[in-house]
């Protein structure tokens, strides 16, 4: 029996005995952990891009980091999505903004990730930013900028699934992407 607590150690599936009839073998997949920290650790094994979701709200820039950001939810219209923690104090401010800036972060932004994800102080201290006329805020040096509007938000478990429509875009193709993998910020292609 697999332990379903904090000590969950990412067990690998075990194949059952090969069937005598030559068909595809069955596999026994261990149960997913119930402990949120262990589950986060398991999900962190899947590399994802890191995006800063930012906007001007109440006269100053606000932002958050999303490692759940996904492009291509739809191509017509162009839609992207991410999830925000249900307890986030930043997301409600961003959700009320007219436009949101999504900056898919690059190698040059590696030092800024912790600052942008911080829950204390000025998240933008020492981070170069720019704004669109409609209030989207972008991080300088990012690989991709998307100016978006909120389409929908749906509570799901302890998060809110957010869908954004892409209204404007700019790409810096030669910028090396940052990736979130195994709980760390990694420069894509390096290990």
Automatic annotation (TrEMBL):
InterPro entries in alphabetical order: Flavin_Rdtase-like_dom, NADH-dep_flavin_reductase, Split_barrel_FMN-bd
Residue ranges constituting the Flavin reductase like domain according to the UniProt record: 43-187
Keyword Amino-acid biosynthesis: no
Class of this enzyme: oxidoreductase
Residues in coiled coil: none
EC number: 1.5.1.-
Keywords, in A-Z order: Oxidoreductase
A GO molecular function held by the record: oxidoreductase activity
SMART domains linked to this entry: Flavin_Reduct (SM00903)
Superkingdom of source: Bacteria
Pfam families: Flavin_Reduct (PF01613)
Family from the record: Belongs to the non-flavoprotein flavin reductase family.
Protein name: Flavin reductase family protein
Organism: Lysinimonas soli
Source organism phylogeny: Bacteria, Bacillati, Actinomycetota, Actinomycetes, Micrococcales
């Amino acid at each position: 029996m697999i332990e379903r607590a904090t000590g969950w150690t990412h067990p690998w599936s075990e194949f059952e005995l090969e069937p005598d009839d030559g068909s595809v073998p069955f596999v026994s997949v261990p149960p997913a952990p119930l402990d949120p920290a262990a589950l986060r650790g398991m999900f962190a094994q899947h590399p994802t891009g890191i995006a800063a979701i930012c906007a001007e709200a109440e006269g100053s820039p606000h932002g958050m980091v999303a490692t759940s950001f996904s492009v291509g939810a739809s191509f017509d219209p162009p839609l992207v999505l991410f999830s925000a923690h249900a307890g986030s104090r930043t997301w409600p401010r961003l959700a009320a903004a007219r436009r949101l800036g999504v900056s898919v972060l690059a190698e040059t932004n590696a030092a800024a990730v912790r600052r942008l994800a911080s829950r204390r102080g000025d998240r933008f201290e020492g981070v170069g930013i720019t704004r669109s006329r409609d209030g989207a805020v972008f991080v300088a040096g990012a690989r991709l900028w998307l100016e978006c509007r909120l389409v929908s938000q749906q509570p799901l478990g302890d998060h809110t699934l957010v869908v954004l429509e892409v209204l404007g875009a700019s790409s810096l193709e030669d910028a090396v992407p940052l990736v979130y993998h195994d709980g760390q910020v990694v420069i894509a292609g390096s290990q």
